[in-house]
Amino acid sequence: MIVGVLKENHLNEKRVSLTPYMITSLNKLGYEVLIEKDAGLSAGFANDEYLEKGAKAMLSAKELIAKADIIVGIHTTLNCIDHSNEIKAKHIIIGLLNPFFDKANVEKLIQAKATLFSLELMPRISRAQSMDVLSSGSTVLGYKAVLLAANLISKFFPMIMMSGTTIKPAKILVVGAGVTGLQAIATARRLGADVYGYDIREEAIEQIKSLGAAGLMPMPEKDADTLLLEHTKDADIIFCTANIIGKKSPIIISKEMVDGMMPGSLILDLVSEYGGNCELCKKDETIITDNKVTIMSPSNLASDFPYHGSAVYSKNMSTYLQYLLEHYKERKFDLEDDVIKSTMIAANGESLKDFL
Length: 356
Prior knowledge:
The protein is an alpha/beta fold. The chain has twelve helices and 19 strands. It has helices spanning 23-29, 47-52, 61-67, 76-81, 103-111, 133-152, 179-190, 202-210, 224-232, 255-259, 306-326, 338-343; strands spanning 2-5, 32-36, 57-59, 70-72, 92-95, 115-118, 160-162, 165-167, 171-175, 194-198, 214-216, 237-240, 266-269, 286-288, 294-296, 328-329, 332-333, 344-347, 350-351.
């Protein structure tokens, strides 16, 4: 089978879905790999590197789609949609297809009778961990967000003792203790900040505490609003990371909380693509409130570490391609398998999921 790697055209996306270092292993599995010209340049991977590692050709998008059986990408729906007239029933399309929030474009690919695999739907089971692109991307996102905030805030993160004075550590509040939130907590702790993590799940609070941060969880005697109002008023930085796949992000940081924050403090809403946790956030915009609180809402911050961001995504994708091959017999996929059943959203012009 022929795998085609398309260049990303999503806003500010610098990553690539397969790096040169995965080509050799895919060749050994029997895959032939084609690359759209310059697909890896913004991530630091030259065209020649792909050819040296075994890619067969550097092509235009149109040429690649015509030759490929499998089309891979990160935001693959957006990469394909400009070429939807060239998508055929033979094509298998894999990536972050965004089926919940980009239904119109996904529907166009379904109408072309392509087979679609959406990696957002990877089941959270042990044998699927090596293919979990969301967890890998969230790790990159949490780390990058803390470095960005440390550069923007007007305070030191750690406590610093000098002759005659002691500077207190910055107070950080992380809302949501999924992979992004936990990575943000760990990174902020390594930089010496005083870190608090908020979540509604007991097991998440235990994970927060294991990283050396204080855990905050609503209780009958203190509801979420009361608890958060106490901690937002003196927070230097708030990271918003709480999200549920397929649903709008819950509003957790209210306008009232923002109004009570200190001048010069910062909110980084990392789930603005899905509505955001902060009531005042606006996707891909930076807002400064009347009380001088900065609210930043980048929707694709993980792409700011394109080299390693590509490397982890590429490893997940390569493992997934191997898994597909193992569960593909007589030109059919094994729909009894949990991984295949969860991620396959359409085939032969028919949707396989209720939400489409």
